[in-house]
Each structure stands twice: as structure tokens, then as C-alpha cells.
Amino acid sequence: MRYFQQHYGFTSKEEVLNHLGCDTRWLVFGPRGKKINTVDDNLRADKTFSSIVARPLGGVETVEEVQERFCPQVSDIDFPDFKKERELHPDHAIVFCPVWMPLFSGACNAFGMEEAMINLYEAPELIDAYLEIQTNYAISVFETGLKNGGAEYCDFAWMGDDFCDNRGPMLSPVLWREKFKPHLARIAAVVKKYNIPLLFHSCGSVEQFIPDLIEIGVNGLCVIQTSANNMKLADLAEKYRNQIVFWGAVDAQQVLPRLTAEEVEAEVLRNMALFPSGGYVVANSHHSMPDIKGENIEAMCRAVTG
Question: pLDDT tens for residues 158-176?
């Protein structure tokens, strides 16, 4: 953002997105009183949710304690005016993007990661209690927002969870399918009820879970972290082309920070060539961190728009 401010004098995200020719607008919303980037936010880097850093369930020993300490309410969500956002952006795809409500990584945030991992084996009833509350909360957020304009005025819905690092899963895939997949499927079913395509964020080495995501109704995997094991876009295209859309794959760890603008353009063109009939959305493989070169973001978009 500093790059675009310094080079072009832009003072809002909207100016940057228009300059780059971005097709989408992410409508991010969450609990009242929290700082969140929305479609119209200016250049601020203060989006923080207390749930990301707090450990409300650290040290709990009973299901009753989980229920007492962890009780998110849909009434706290500050839902946007979806119709107004559509009027402001008639020619863009709007993404319905509620506050981060993950299951596995949410449990790691709530209990503390080490404690959550131990509880999965030694006190699974505590994890089950958390998952039931978090899932019901997510369902309420999606149901309320989509019913009250989200489905009518937005083009995609977004949800996500992180359960892999660059090397592979952070827990047994068998355990993930037993504990977490059924809850994700419940949330996805609510979204699909409104006939809106569903994007799912999960970074890291998630290749072995892509069939599971397809099974529960995910339409697009967002993002594709190509620097992780088994996440080369050519391989994913060969295995899953026409089954799920791939969103991302312009690497934010190596390509965008380290390569030249010409090399970035070449990378994007190679990615696009893998999907001659569509099924790929050009984007960063993750957030634009400070080490990413602004000129490389321009190069990534220029490769698409010419």
C-alpha cells in the first residue's frame, strides 16, 4: 500500500484495485467494535480480532467450562448493507466474507495450540464441545447474512480453516475427517442452500484434502500456496481440473518478494496456460506482506489485463 501511495498518490484501497483492474471486491465484516478492512477502507493496517490472540479456553477441564467461556453471538456481527455495496460496485464480483471462524485453527487459538492438540487425544469431549459451538455460530452468521441480502447481492461466499503447514497436515488426516470435516460440511450445506458458489481458504500443503473439499460442496480453493509440498499448480490442474476452481498460485513467499517483474509475468502466463477453458483465478498465494514488491503486484495483474 505504501508503494501505491508513494508512486501514484493513491489514498484508498479502491483506487489501488481500480488501477490494477481487479475483478473482485471482498466485503469483509465481523463483530461490532473490531477493526476490519472492508471494500471502502482507507490505507490502514489495524484489522485485529481479539479471538486471534486470546486463549479463552486455556486450562478448561469440563464441557461446562467450555460452554461458559466460549459463547460467540451472531447478534454481535455488524452486517453490511449488501444492496448498497452492489450499487457501489455494479461491475465487480463481490465476495461475502464474514469474520474468520475456523474450526481446527480456531480450536488452537481458543485452547492454545499445544493444549488443543493434546485435548484431541486426551479430552476429545472438550474439542467436541468447542466445535459444536463454533459450527453453530458460523451457521448462524452465514444464515443471517445470506438470507438478508448476501445471497442476492454477492457473487461468492467465503469460509476457511487452516490445518496444514508447508510440509503437510498438522494433525492426522483420519482424525481431521472424523472430527472436523463433518462440521465443515454442515456449514457448507447452509451456504449451498442459497445457491451461491463457495470459496474455501486453506493454505499450506492441502492437496490430499482437495477431494474432501469437493465432496462437501466447495467450488473454489483459495489460496493455492505453491511453495508448499505437493502444491505445484501443474500437478493440481492435472488431477482436479474441472472439479474445483483454483484461486491464487502466484507465490507470496518466493515469487512476489524475490523475482523480477518480468519473471512474475512469465509465472502468471504459465499458470493461465494450464487452464485454457477456465477454472483458475489469478491472485497472490496469500496476503500481500511488506516484503512483496509493489511493482510485482502490478506485474501479476498486467499479465492478465495486458
Answer: 999 999 999 999 999 999 9
> For residue 5, is it within any domain?
no
Do 43 and 154 lie in one domain? The reply is yes
Q: Would you say residue 13 lies in a domain? A: no
Tell me which residue range forms the domain holding 273. Answer: 219-306
What is the value of pTM for the model shown? 0.92
Helices 113-122 + 124-145 axis angle, to 10: 110
φ, ψ for residue 186, nearest 5 deg: -65, -45
Q: How many domains does the chain have?
A: 2
- 11 belongs to a structural domain: no
Summarize pLDDT for 255-277 with one digit per residue, the tens: 999 999 999 999 999 999 999 99
